[in-house]
Amino acid sequence: MTEVQTASMVKPWEGLEGRDRHAACMIAAQAGDRSAFDVLVAELSPLVWHVARSGGLDRTSAEDVVQTVWLALVRHINRLSEPRALAGWLITTTRREASRVQQRGSGQVELSSEITEQLPTTDPSPEHEVLRGERDRQLWAAFHQLTQRCQELLRLTVLAGRAEYRAVAEALHMPHGSIGPTRGRCLNTLRTLYHGDSGS
Amino acid sequence: MRTHQSDDELMSEVARLVNVLDPMPPGLVERAQFAVAIDSIEDIEIEVAQWANTNMLAGVRGGLPGTITFFVGDLTVMVNVTRTGERQRIDGWLVPAGAHGVEVRVADHGSTATTADEGGRFVLTEVPRGTTQLLVRMNAEQSRTVVTPTVDL
User: Fold this and answer.
1) Could you tell me if residue B16 is inside a domain?
2) What are the boundaries of the region Disordered (chain A) (predicted)?
């Protein structure tokens, strides 16, 4: 890519939000604007991250997958003819890449060891204050027993509170009306697993 | 007590755990932006290699030098990193062997390039430390370039 815009020009995505903003970035990136691509990486990496983590990869492998997905996009940027479909393309590509890494047998992590690694945060840490001990441990363990799709949907729902993620439903290829019920079923399963683990 | 937890309450608990326990690693965005900022990337056929043995790599990523391996298709690259004062020396071995081009990009420090010998071995000295990416240009196939995700060395 070559830099075709000067810093003094108003960027076409300025003032836009969500999918409109990212579609404008895609068009600019396809025309060679690297700063547009950097905006996409900055704003949509959390989406890629959480899809990769839903696929059961450890954090190190998930980071590699995030970088691999962006390298794939920069390489194939002109093959995406529909800029508004970017989030969907990212989700599909990330799922495929995460499953490729899993099949190689690297990057898989035993949940128990990962929880041990993550939960007893080193003191003094701001995270320590937020954690609520055994209940959190059980809920996080239950969360990881959910199907990949449920983990993905719940993680992306967390992201959906932010403006740039309003297109999550469409990106997940789910009919608009079915997101709520599906999410409800995932939460019911989570509730059962959570209470089952607590022995109540 | 928990049995009466509503979907909204449970969802907000999940949100808190996801945000606290599993946020993106700090600096990931910057590393990804660096990883894609390869000159003329649209003109070359790239393949992204996978770092092997992530357990060992976790140590390397914590800043300790050592041996790391990456692979893609039939190509395997072993890299040994040795500290030399503020900088480091990178010894590498490519399999299958061949006089492939090797480039090491370090964020904010440009890049260092060399060519492997016929046995597939290469050495780069005085490499700055930082967010690092390796590129291997296969000599037999002009357009085939292998790149790695970045690693902090």
Assistant:
1) no
2) 101-128
- The count of domains in chain A is 1
Cα of A145 to nearest chain B Cα, Å: 13
Q: Is residue B5 part of a domain?
A: no
* A154: closest CA of chain B, how far (Å): 8
Report residues of chain B scoring pLDDT below 70.
1-4, 53-65, 140-143
- B46 → closest Cβ in A37, A42, A75: A75
Q: Encode chain A in three state secondary structure.
A: CCCCCCCCCCCCCCCCCHHHHHHHHHHHHHCCCHHHHHHHHHHHHHHHHHHHHHCCECHHHHHHHHHHHHHHHHHHHHHCCCHHHHHHHHHHHHHHHHHHHHHCCCCECCHHHHHHHHCCCCCCCHHHHHCCCHHHHHHHHHHHHCCHHHHHHHHHHHHCCCHHHCCHHHHCCCCHHHHHHHHHHHHHHHHHHHHHHCCC
Which residue among B10, B15, B33 places its CB closest to the CB of A191? B10
Q: Answer yes or no: is B15 within a domain.
A: no
Residues 6-35 of chain B whose Cβ lies under 8 A from any Cβ of chain A: 7, 10-11, 13-22, 24-25, 28-29, 31-33, 35
Domain span at residue B38 reads 27-152
B22 lies in some domain: no
pLDDT at A111: 46
- Domain limits at A50? 18-109+146-197
> Mean pLDDT, consecutive 10-residue segments, chain A of 200 residues?
60 90 94 95 95 91 94 91 91 93 62 45 45 81 93 87 60 67 91 72
pLDDT at B56: 47
